[in-house]
């Protein structure tokens, strides 16, 4: 069987590699020639533990080949970006472009699968596009949606072991897609229809967003009431049926901070909680920035000089180097814009250098700072001794007690 992966990014490339490792002949397509060149040289262009060795193996054995143009195959997988536009509306133009590129190659009996996180109805839309342009293939090819739920950093394990949800435009398409994935997925393959599968992915990430919003809302209430939110949540979670997540300085990344908008933009009247959760998590970052700015002003009034401030962390979650949609980055930018010449030390121990922020070593910044703002709970920050002579704004629970 020969298959074609459209998009060789964080998800498409590892999936193509794992499929190739399981004996499937894979052609990996990307519009970025650099990605194609590196892949063909066996050089991984993303960061993922253990993946480099696997890539070299499947490239040198000839199981995986990369190209900027698709080739005739038996199955096609769309793993391209699905960002949102300025008004928070989903942008499925990449899925459509990748689909248009393979339409001339389709033949009877082929399988077409969308893996990209997509708004409800995308698979039906792409099926219509395919059959409008190739009406002779109606009911003769198989079309399905199969979202990805791997955690970057643990992709080799999760690609194989996670359960997956697979929904075809009809039963026989679901069967075909399940038959494909069962070649390398050991987790259970749960069958449904394509709309439910699309909504399932959006639901998973919206559910996380809503739960984090609840914790963030509690953190605002506790700040006003003079209650330690970390202790409160720990105590509430002693209830056998309560499981509150931890608050932070907002929600970031390219999934949880993005996917709920795919629901709110299509179902604005119905998605009240999902929309409010998004607002709450965005507001939390704004609130943190205001808190830092007010603390700076207070310091200046009391000490008759500008403070030195350490902004600890830029990533969207602990112990990673990914800054996409990161609230810590937003807060740091906002504080710097209003800093009035205060000395701001920006810290991100997982990044070597940044084109906007001049980075400072975390220990040095902590020692120099009058105000220390913990934005991300990176493990290394937890080893810093608590210094009660400093003003500490702990938005992520470094010193929970
Ligand atoms: N990264 C994750 O953790 C994750 C997890 C689950 C789901 N997803 C979803 O998977 C999809 C892909 O995400 P990603 O993180 O791999 O994105 P990515 O940006 O890392 O990679 C996408 C790749 O597609 C390429 N591309 C764009 N248009 C193309 C086209 N027409 N033909 C061929 N290649 C094209 C880009 O050059 C890029 O290399 C998105 O919908 C995302 O929401 C991502």
Automatic annotation (TrEMBL):
Family recorded in the similarity comment: Belongs to the UDP-glucose/GDP-mannose dehydrogenase family.
Record-annotated UDP-glucose/GDP-mannose dehydrogenase C-terminal domain positions: 310-401
Record-linked SUPFAM superfamilies: 6-phosphogluconate dehydrogenase C-terminal domain-like, NAD(P)-binding Rossmann-fold domains, UDP-glucose/GDP-mannose dehydrogenase C-terminal domain
Residue intervals passing through the bilayer: none
One GO process term, biological-process aspect: polysaccharide biosynthetic process
Organism, as annotated: Bacteroides faecichinchillae
Keyword Lyase applies: no
UniProt cross-references to NCBIfam families, sorted A to Z: NDP-sugDHase, PRK11064.1
Protein name: UDP-N-acetyl-D-mannosaminuronic acid dehydrogenase
Signal peptide per UniProt: none
Keyword terms, alphabetized: NAD, Oxidoreductase
GO MF term set: NAD binding; oxidoreductase activity, acting on the CH-CH group of donors, NAD or NADP as acceptor; oxidoreductase activity, acting on the CH-OH group of donors, NAD or NADP as acceptor
């Amino acid at each position: 069987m020969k298959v074609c992966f459209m998009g060789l990014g964080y998800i498409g490339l590892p999936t193509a590699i794992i499929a190739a490792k399981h004996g499937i002949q894979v052609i990996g397509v990307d519009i970025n020639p650099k990605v194609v060149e590196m892949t063909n040289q066996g050089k991984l262009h993303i960061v993922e533990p253990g993946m480099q060795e696997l890539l070299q193996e499947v490239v040198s054995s000839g199981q995986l080949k990369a190209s900027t143009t698709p080739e005739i195959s038996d199955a096609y997988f769309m793993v391209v970006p699905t960002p949102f536009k300025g008004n928070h509306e989903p942008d499925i133009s990449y899925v459509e472009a990748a689909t248009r590129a393979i339409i001339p190659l389709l033949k009877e009996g082929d399988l077409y699968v969308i893996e990209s996180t997509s708004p409800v109805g995308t698979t039906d839309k792409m099926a219509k596009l395919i059959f409008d342009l190739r009406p002779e293939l109606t009911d003769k090819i198989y079309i399905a949606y199969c979202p990805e739920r791997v955690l970057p950093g643990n992709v080799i394990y999760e690609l194989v072991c996670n359960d997956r949800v697979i929904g075809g435009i009809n039963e026989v398409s679901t069967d075909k897609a399940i038959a494909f994935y069962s070649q390398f997925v050991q987790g259970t393959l749960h069958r449904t229809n394509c709309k439910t599968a699309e909504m399932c992915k959006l639901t998973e990430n919206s559910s996380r967003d809503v739960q984090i919003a609840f914790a963030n809302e509690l953190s605002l209430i506790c700040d006003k009431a003079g209650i330690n939110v970390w202790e409160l949540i720990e105590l509430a979670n002693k209830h056998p049926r309560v499981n509150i997540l931890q608050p932070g300085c907002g929600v970031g990344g390219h999934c949880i901070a993005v996917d709920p908008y795919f629901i709110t933009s299509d179902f604005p009247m119905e998605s009240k909680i999902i929309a409010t959760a998004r607002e709450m998590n965005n507001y939390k970052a704004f609130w943190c920035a205001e808190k830092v700015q007010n603390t700076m002003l207070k310091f200046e009034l009391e000490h008759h000089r500008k403070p030195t401030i350490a902004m600890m962390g830029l990533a969207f979650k602990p112990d990673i180097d990914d800054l996409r949609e990161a609230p810590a980055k937003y807060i740091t930018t906002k504080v710097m814009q209003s800093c009035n010449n205060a000395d701001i030390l920006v810290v991100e121990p997982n990044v070597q250098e940044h084109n906007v922020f001049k980075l400072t070593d975390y220990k040095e910044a902590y020692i120099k700072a009058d105000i220390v703002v913990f934005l991300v709970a990176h493990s290394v920050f937890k080893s810093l001794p608590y210094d009660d002579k400093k003003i500490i704004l702990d938005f992520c629970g470094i010193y929970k007690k």
